[in-house]
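Work Package 4 report. The design task specified in the project plan requires that, given a folded chain encoded as structure tokens, an amino acid be chosen for each position. We show below one input record used in the internal validation round.
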């Protein structure tokens, strides 16, 4: 996956989650810049938000070495919206006697 430094910084700061897969498992990376205190979640650890650049460096280095692969994870809100829409469609179908 070709990820640019600025894309990582922008998307993580916006609250998106990045799944990082290693030879031994996988973990999610995300940032909470507006939390008190602001934080970055990386490799199961909570780090100060000021460490975001170091986290990005580590991810890019792992990608460059071929040690990790990454993919953006859909936000929880997307799943909630899709489930709510599916539920409404199911309820509507039930009311119309189609099921």
């Amino acid at each position: 996956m070709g990820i640019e430094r600025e894309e990582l910084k922008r998307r993580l700061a916006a609250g998106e989650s990045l799944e990082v897969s290693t030879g031994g498992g996988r973990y999610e990376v995300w940032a909470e810049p507006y939390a008190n205190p602001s934080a970055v979640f990386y490799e199961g650890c909570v780090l100060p938000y000021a460490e975001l650049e170091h986290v990005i460096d580590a991810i890019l280095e792992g990608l460059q070495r071929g040690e990790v692969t990454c993919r953006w994870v859909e936000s929880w809100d997307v799943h909630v919206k899709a489930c709510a829409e599916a539920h409404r469609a199911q309820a509507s179908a039930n009311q119309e006697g189609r099921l």
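Strands lie at 17-22, 25-32, 39-42, 45-48, 69-73. Validation will be extended to a larger panel in the next phase.
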